[in-house]
Amino acid sequence: AGRLDLFVTCEVVFVRSGQSDLHTLKEARLAMLRPHLRDRYARVLAAAYFCRLIEMVAEREAPLGGLHELLRLALDHLDNHDPSAKLVARFENRLCEELGLGEVKSGGGALLHGYFHRPLPPQREELMKQMASQARSRAGA
Fold first, then answer.
1. Could you say which of 11, 28, 39, 64 has the lowest number of CB atoms within 10 Å?
2. pLDDT over 80 at 102, yes or no
3. pTM of the model
């Protein structure tokens, strides 16, 4: 009934399947809606990038409370602010710290790429283009 949507926080009750990763949802209670996150494409793109990045580095169903808190803070911020290169870098660096990857020297994104031997999610490149375009628009206005 509209409770499950992109970038909302819900408390869920589910029954684990003994056969697969597809579990049965019994109950969902909305905890945080974030209505303004979808006001601008750059915000949605940043939120999608952060989610995909965590999906790339986290094991399925691992209890990673620090990563959940990091994502929650980032989504809450994006509900009221446009993304910035500083936000992206901070998220990537904090993600590296939470994962215990050591000191971030050349940027968290580069460290994640090198450590996991996977390209960063494609949303990152598009997000950087969007932020550069917005900066040019503000400079020309």
1. 11
2. no
3. 0.86
Q: Where are the beta strands (DSSP E) in the chain?
A: 9-15, 24-32
Does residue 141 surpass a pLDDT of 70? no
The structure tokens listed for 7 are 């970038």
Instruction: Round to whole Å and give the CA distance between 130 and 47.
Output: 13
Sequential DSSP letters for 108-136: HHHHHHHHHTSPPPTHHHHHHHHHHHHHH
- Distance between alpha carbon 65 and the CA centroid of its chain, in Å? 14
Output Rg (C-alpha) for the chain, integer angstroms. Answer: 17
**DSSP state, 137?**
H
CA quadruple 118, 123, 126, 129: dihedral positive or negative?
negative
Q: What amino acid occupies position 19?
A: Q
pLDDT, tens only, 23-35: 998 998 888 889 8
